[in-house]
Amino acid sequence: MTHGARFDCELHRSLAATFEAVEEFLVEFHQHSQAMRERVNCFEAELLVREALTNAVLHGCGADPRKHVRCLLRLRGKRLFIAVADEGLGFDWRAARAKSAMPSDCSGRGLQILYRYADQVRFNERGNLVTMIKHFEKGNCHDTGNKGR
C-alpha cells in the first residue's frame, strides 16, 4: 500500500484473471496493510475484496488468464473504498440482486456477502465494475465486526 496526502493507504493493481493472482494479491494486501490493522476489521475487508475479485475472475473473465481484473483499495480514516473491474461483458446486477441462494446451495452467495458486509455497493450500468464503501466503527483484525448482527 502506498501512502499519499489524500489517502492514508492506497493499493492499485491489475491482475491476470486467475485465482492464483487473487491469492497473491491478498498476500500482498496482508503484507502492506499495517496502517489498516488498527482501524479496520481485517476479516470484513478481506472478505469483501476476496469475494469481489473472485466474482470478477470467475464470472466476469471466465478465469481466462489473458484477461485482467483491476482492483483499487483506498483507506482514509476508518473508511475503506474498494473498486473491482473486469474485462467481461458484465451482468444484470439488478436481476441478480433480487435472487437469493438457498441454504442448500454450494454457491451463489457472492452478492449477498457484498451487500451484507459493505455499507454501500454500486455497479456500473454494464455490470463489470463494482464499488464498495465500508465504514469501520471499531477495528482490529481480531474483532468480528458483527455490530449486533
Compose a concise summary of this entry.
This protein has 149 residues and is α+β, with helices and mostly antiparallel strands.
Summed over residues and divided by their number, the pLDDT gives a mean of: 84
Strand content: 15-25%
CATH architecture assignment name:
2-Layer Sandwich
3D shape: globular
Number of helices: 5
| CATH topology-level name | Heat Shock Protein 90
Can you say what the CATH homologous superfamily is? Histidine kinase-like ATPase, C-terminal domain
Query: What is the ordering of alpha helices and beta strands?
Result: EHHHEEHHEE
Number of distinct beta strands: 5
Estimate nothing, just give the exact number of structural domains: 1
Helix content: 25-40%
Oligomeric form: single chain
Provide the structure class.
Answer: alpha+beta
Biggest sheet descriptor: 5 strands, antiparallel
Under CATH at level 1, the class stands as Alpha Beta
Strand order of the largest sheet: 1-2-3-5-4
Please supply descriptive tags for the structure shown above.
five-stranded antiparallel beta sheet, disordered C terminus, 149 residues
Report on this structure.
There is one protein chain. With 149 residues, the chain is of the alpha+beta class. It has one domain: Heat Shock Protein 90 (2-Layer Sandwich), CATH 3.30.565.10. Helix content is 34%, strand content 24%. Strands 1-2-3-5-4 form a five-stranded antiparallel beta sheet, with helices on one face. Strand 2 and strand 3 form a beta hairpin. The longest helix has 19 residues, at 42-60. The radius of gyration is 15 Å and the shape is globular. The N and C termini lie far apart (31 Å). Mean pLDDT is 84; it is low at 139-149.
